[in-house]
Amino acid sequence: MTVEVDRFRRECYRRGAELAGLLGDWTAGPGPLYRKLADALARAAEEGALRAGERLPAERELATALAVSRATVVGAYDELRARDVVERRQGSGTRVRRGRRPPRSDGRVRGGQAGRIFQRLIDGPGPLISLACAAEGGAGEVADALDEVAAHDIGALLGTHGYYPRGLPALREAIAEYHSARGLPTHPDEVLVTTGAHQALVLVAEVYLRRSATVVVESPSWPACLDVFRAQGAELVPVPLDGEGIDPRPLAAALAEHEPALLYVMPTYHNPTGLMTSEARRRRVVELAAKWDVPVLEDNAYAGRALAPDAVDLPPLAAYAPPEAEVVTVESLGKAVWGGLRVGWVRAPVELIERCARRKALADLGTPVIDQAVAARLVPRMGEISRRRAVDQRERFALLERLLRERLPEWTWRRPDGGSSLWVALPGESADVFAQLALRHGVEVIPGSAMDPTGAHDNHLRIPFTHPPEVLAEVVDRLARAWTELRRHGPRDVPRLHPIV
């Protein structure tokens, strides 16, 4: 009975948290909270994000998720009934009225947990400081490479048709040399250039996954990546991390029990924890995958983002794989050089590259060739670019740690090996609730529930240190004010959530 009650409470809380994420920055602007909440819910119904007949969370559920009083939600629901947006039926709760004309398009970004992150990129900057995107400006070398392409390459490029679905030959050669130098011998035929690492994940998922397939993933992981697999109809089986990477015992059990179509890991500066999977663990992961005949998809989007001055990235998992293992490596220039180039790649066996290339050709006929020519001149310099940029990275990281220790000494985290953010634990509080209070103080944070559906990290936040120092100082100041409000005034009745197994 206790398990069923816990399951019910957890589901109720989840519904409120999902709706809270859908509403976004609903507290902005003048007016009483109940009216702003009513406006946000009415807008969601008008745009189709809330469907006709859909049941809204109970007042207490939504109040808990939004960190407001129950009276605020009651007032908002009353306002919506007066506007004829919702109706209340005995025993059926509050529902969006049927008979409302569905919109042609709501204009908002879909995509599961990652949707609100991508929506923030579309909405653009504003008074709200968003911590949804852990990316920084481009390296100065990009301008140099552009000049070199204009001076030496543009004439030859214009003399071609410009379509390279597998990628510009010069870039594929540069990527092959880059991997070979890092301990993973690679031929250009084993490389496919993509429009960023995200497209690479999509193409690989399309090749491997069929509806109702299973993908074993790390827990936590990044929601935009998980949504790629969900979009293919896959079911996700989460496996926890320890201090060396994905935990081999539950991994072995998951591979044996579920016979997954794919194992997805981020071994080099895992997002969001910043963990570097150890060499011994890399060997163990590929051995287990080979034993159970499960292909491995490794996402090394944060390669080159070490924090320690003397740190050296380990070779990709594929470098440790036995001959019978199948390992697909995804990487990009997004984090190391500049996301604006939108150049990523897949390194895999030739047969898989051919399958991905056919899908790439159908998607866009090839990544823009000028961008590829610039990337071809940048890939050989990635080591020096990473070393130079690491100086600023370490300074911002040290500043964020110092500010958090000074202003929020109760918060804890494991020092990351690399990457772009801290994975912070809040003592005894729901990060979903805190995220709502942080919005009212002008900061958008991504709570742990978006990155781990098991509930094991519901008290975690990801805080990037990619912003300039003055912005980081303002971020911590706003977070500290939101934390003080939460600790002094509640709510305290957030259900403590535990995974149901």
In words, what does this structure look like?
- This protein is α/β, with parallel strands linked by helices.
- The chain has three domains: 2-96, Arc Repressor Mutant, subunit A, CATH 1.10.10.10; 112-139 and 384-489, Aspartate Aminotransferase, domain 1, CATH 3.90.1150.10; 162-381, Type I PLP-dependent aspartate aminotransferase-like (Major domain) (Aspartate Aminotransferase, domain 2).
- Helices cover 45% and strands 13% of the residues.
- An eight-stranded mixed β-sheet has the order 4-11-10-9-8-5-6-7, sandwiched between helices. Strands 12-13-16-15 form a four-stranded antiparallel β-sheet, with helices on one face. Strands 1-2 form a two-stranded antiparallel sheet.
- Strand 1 and strand 2 (93-96) form a beta hairpin.
- Helix 8 packs across helix 12 and helix 15 packs across helix 16.
- The radius of gyration is 24 Å and the shape is globular.
- GO terms for molecular function: DNA binding; DNA-binding transcription factor activity; pyridoxal phosphate binding; transaminase activity.
- Residues 89-111 are annotated as: Disordered.
- This is DNA-binding transcriptional regulator, MocR family, contains an aminotransferase domain.
- Keywords: Aminotransferase, Antibiotic biosynthesis, DNA-binding, Pyridoxal phosphate, Transcription, Transcription regulation, Transferase.
- It holds the Pfam family GntR.
